[in-house]
Write a structure and sequence with these properties.
Layout: E1 6-8, E2 13-14, H1 16-20, E3 25-30, H2 35-50, E4 56-61, H3 68-78, E5 86-87, H4 92-96, E6 104-108, E7 114-119, H5 127-139
């Protein structure tokens, strides 16, 4: 899991490890200028609501500083206020995670070890995604 400093919705610095703190985490790299990212965000919100208290869905915006307020609004609207806002406007986290483009979604176990990765748009509200999460949680 990358250790790069991120900023939360209030502008405070944090890291993915601090936010996930021993929980199964679904980390999604996205941006407002990425159409597939915007299409899949409602399904990530649905995943968080379905598994609330069992795992964390953490979107990390790669939007530049001038777009942060728009990104916060878009995330809140698309996720029905169910996802936290984190941003890395330097976009370094994309390189840290060797993401070939956006969106990229990475599943981490409780120890912060990557166990699965999906590149491109996915339907995280699907029964297939739920079955994957149930399998991961059963192993934890």
């Amino acid at each position: 899991m990358p250790t790069r400093a991120l900023r939360d919705g209030a502008g405070a610095e944090t890291t993915l490890a601090a936010v996930t703190a021993g929980q199964v985490a679904v980390v999604n790299l996205w941006a407002t200028w990425c159409a597939p990212c915007m299409r899949e965000m409602p399904t990530l919100g649905a995943l968080q609501r379905r598994f609330a208290g069992r795992l964390l869905v953490i979107p990390v915006s790669a939007d530049e500083d001038s777009k942060i307020e728009q990104a916060k609004r878009d995330l809140a609207e698309l996720s029905e206020n169910s996802l936290p806002f984190l941003v890395d406007s330097s976009r370094g986290v994309i390189f840290d995670l060797q993401a070939p483009g956006l969106p990229v979604t990475i599943l981490y176990n409780r120890q912060g070890v990557e166990i699965a990765r999906v590149t491109g748009e996915a339907n995280w509200g699907s029964e297939e995604a739920a079955a994957l999460m149930e399998a991961v949680l059963a192993e934890e």
